[in-house]
Amino acid sequence: MTDQSEEPEVELEARLAEQETFEPPESFVEQANVTDEGIYEEFEEAWPECWEAAADLLEWDEPYENVLEDEDAPFYRWFTGGKLNASYNCLDRHVENGAKNRAAIQWEGELGETRTYTYGELLNEVEAFAAGLRELGVEEDDVVTMYMPMIPELPIAMLACARIGAPHSVVFAGFSAEALATRMNASDSEYLITCDGYYRRGDALNHKEKSDKGLRQVDHDVTTVVVDRLGDELKHFLGKHAHDYDELVAEHEGASVEPVSRDAEDMLFLMYTSGTTGQPKGVKHTTAGYLAYTAWTGQAVLDIKPEDTYWCSADIGWITGHSYIVYGPLALGTTTLMYEGTPDYPEKDRFWELVEKYRVDTFYTAPTAIRAFMKWGAEYPEAHDLSSLRLLGTVGEPINPRAWKWYYKHIGGEECPIVDTWWQTETGGHMITTLPGIGEMKPGSAGPGLPGLDVRVVDGTGEEVDAGHAGYLTVNNPWPGMLRTLYQNDERFVSEYWQEYSDPDADEWVYFPEDGAKIDEDGYITVLGRVDDVINVSGHRLGTMELESAIVATAGVAEAAVVGGDHELKGEAVYAYVILEDGQEPTDAMRERIVDNVVEGIGPIAKPEDVIFTPELPKTRSGKIMRRLLEDIASGNELGNTSTLRNPDVVEDIQQQVQDD
Ligand code: PRX
Description:
Layout: H1 9-17, H2 26-29, H3 39-45, H4 52-55, E1 66-69, E2 77-80, E3 83-84, H5 86-99, E4 103-108, E5 114-118, H6 119-135, E6 144-146, H7 153-164, E7 168-170, H8 177-186, E8 191-195, E9 197-200, E10 203-206, H9 208-216, E11 223-227, E12 242-244, H10 245-251, E13 262-263, E14 267-273, E15 281-286, H11 287-300, E16 309-312, H12 319-331, E17 335-339, H13 350-358, E18 362-365, H14 367-376, H15 379-382, E19 391-395, H16 401-411, E20 418-421, E21 455-458, E22 470-475, E23 485-486, H17 490-497, E24 515-519, E25 525-530, E26 534-537, E27 540-543, H18 544-552, E28 557-567, E29 571-580, H19 588-601, E30 610-613, H20 627-635, H21 649-660
Parallel strand pairs: 4-17, 6-7, 6-8, 7-14, 8-11, 11-12, 16-17, 16-18, 18-19, 19-20, 29-30
Antiparallel strand pairs: 1-2, 3-13, 4-5, 9-10, 14-15, 15-23, 21-22, 22-24, 24-25, 26-27, 28-29
The chain binds adenosine-5'-monophosphate-propyl ester (PRX).
Residues 273, 319-320, 395-398, 420-425, 446, 513, 515, 527, 529-530, 536, 541 line the site of adenosine-5'-monophosphate-propyl ester.
């Protein structure tokens, strides 16, 4: 853990100095789902029963007996005794309630093709695919991996798995073959749903080649289903254990598949994410708590209503897409928009064209995208009618006040509240944010913890810091959407999240998200970023250990240290400091090999911004690499005292090297 007191104060002060407050526009408040300020007190007083409000948003096959069971803390259990099915809650009940013909998924491909799935149609296809999966041998509790881009078959496959009680594990399509194999091996997953390819900036990318390469590294047999996304554009062949998605669905058209009644605490899905060590963590989410929490936050924070067209521009391969493209919105019976491509293809106004075309009510994106929009200029949104927008959201990384204000003015026309939502893969749903119909907004500060959450900013000993001081974020009580454990690794679950500030002897458990933060006199929290070895590139989480192992796998590399440095668009970018083996030359070819290995090992999102060759790494007398110093060099910050280093001379060499590059 890094000492937060070393955080560069200058940038933070600048962020806070610019801070003004904004009241939620009256036009929004008038129609908001939640407007009563008393909700904070109500939830506090009635905790944990307050979370019945979330459970009430679902339909249960059997009612739960207890809201919360905490005997085995930190292995909390929510809504125990209850039974339900997530696919039933996202589909059947809306069809039964008269929404059969309402659009559930509105999809737009990069080339402009469109597909609309009504709730009725979506249910039919989910049932047909669920029947197909069963025929292929998928049974309750088998982990099914999905390695797919933003095509409707991805949420269909997720819901089909949920229907038959098979947990899914979605691997982001931009991740490498190696990353796919690591995750399939770690979860013993014997089924893979993938596709032939997809479009990126007009090019047809071959995705199947990457899946096949990954499959060759999986140490057990795998049955595969392949979606034909590209048709004649890219021919593909199916191997021995591979099946065509369309054929499978056609064979089972009209099938009726009873939703399996799952125990509240049965696993709904696994999602692998990066942490301090090289091995990704398999975050386990369960059926009732997760679904109730994403539905409740979808309603309270994103103000989702069934008649809305709601758009979250994240990728379903990340938790944001799971919670707020698929489960939350569909549980609430709204129309969720899915877009396959990037914001700048064919032109930089692509997103605004979509907002106008579909009359989008709520738009939820990441600060990295907002920074890009800002750089491209206001003329792109100005060319479109964005008056349908009612609410804006951001997620994934801190947003600076300048970007916040630009978003507020140029996208929201100063009439839409912005929710800056802090949360994580592990938390399942939103944790810190204003409620858009209640709280005043302070650009750059996410807001208070949600009702029912005890979020604090503490010092190294767990004592709350005074307003205005920096410390560490903690969550001092459990919540329904929380991860239950790390897949097949209870021990790591406890040591990663519950060790730092808990007092097991007193049975006091405190969740540590590994973020630094500052709190003000109104209880508004400004999140400063990770305090562990995780880099947040464009809102995507990358572990330095994973990056370093990909680099040292390059022939000729002796040692590597990877840090995050400031980046205008990405927020943070990857900087690699590399020591070569004796006799190896620091050439551009070597640099390229290193970059290629990172892209091969993890994916293009992890591509280093710069590779800096150095004969040594700055180390403390006890031999620890001074990462903070390397971060400062990468960000061009002024360096503090380097006299405590074992090898202070190396710092100047490295700085020189960076300048020469
Ligand atoms: O550092 C925080 C940052 O993203 C991390 C979680 O990453 P991940 O699990 O990939 O989930 C991202 C989407 C929920 C956090 O530990 N983070 C997320 N949202 C914010 C944020 N930092 C500042 N402000 C936010 N709104």
